[in-house]
Design brief:
The protein is of the alpha+beta class and about 210 residues long. It is built from 10 helices and 4 strands. A 4-stranded mixed beta sheet has the order 2-1-3-4, with helices on one face. Strand 1, helix 1 and strand 2 form a beta-alpha-beta unit. The radius of gyration is 17 Å and the shape is globular.
Length: about 210
């Protein structure tokens, strides 16, 4: 049985739980507070703090960082299904996973986790809207970020896009993203793991 450590309301953990449901791999959600005996893990936990997540335990393997975990799971338990073998197609999926971390997540994180005044909220909302422009452009040409089929590249950006629509902020019209999020919401694994909170400004985490 795989073990997943971290709060299942956190987007980075939901990357992992959503994908585990996609591939039908049973797991146990352990919550926050992993304590490891490996020196590398100990240093990581010191740097990240007590809520460091997600962390996957698969037998003797302990792996942290959500995108790395998804790639490992895809290669190990669902080879060829959600992470393309062809280099160009794989790079497409990887690109969106990295873009979520580098560009989409920071302004969303600020709005969900920091105490911002109205000016700061507006500034971060504008940054997030700008960050979503390449997503809209890509999805205007194809049904999923990396092409015609769902891949692991859709997971990190999809979770953040879903949160974007829950926030009470100004957003430009994004019909391609809206249609894509509806396709994602129709997936049983999404419906099971990405649960709408009562108050997105408080309950949602990134």
């Amino acid at each position: 049985m795989l073990e997943v450590w971290g709060s299942t309301s956190a987007a980075n953990v939901q990357k992992v739980t959503w994908f585990l449901e996609e591939i039908g791999k049973p797991f146990t959600a352990r919550g926050i507070g992993y304590t490891g005996s490996d020196p590398i893990d100990a240093v990581y936990l010191k740097v990240r703090g007590g809520e460091a997540s997600p962390i996957l335990k698969d037998g003797e393997l302990v792996l942290w960082e959500g995108n790395a975990i998804i790639r490992y799971l895809a290669e190990t338990y669902a080879p060829g299904r959600f992470y393309p073998a062809a280099l160009v197609a794989r790079a497409e999926a990887d690109r969106w996973m990295d873009y979520q971390l580098s560009t989409i997540r920071p302004p969303l994180h600020a709005m969900l986790r920091d105490r911002l005044d109205a000016t700061a909220v507006a500034r971060n909302a504008a940054k997030l809207a700008e960050a979503m422009e390449p997503v809209e452009a890509a999805l205007a040409q194809r049904p999923y970020l990396a092409g015609d089929t769902f891949t692991i590249g859709d997971i990190p950006v999809g979770i953040n896009a879903y949160r974007w629509f829950l926030l009470d902020v100004e957003r430009p019209k994004s019909p391609a993203i809206e249609a894509w999020v509806e396709r994602l919401k129709a997936r049983p694994a999404f419906a099971k793991t990405i649960v709408p909170p009562g108050n997105p400004n408080v309950a949602l985490r990134v």
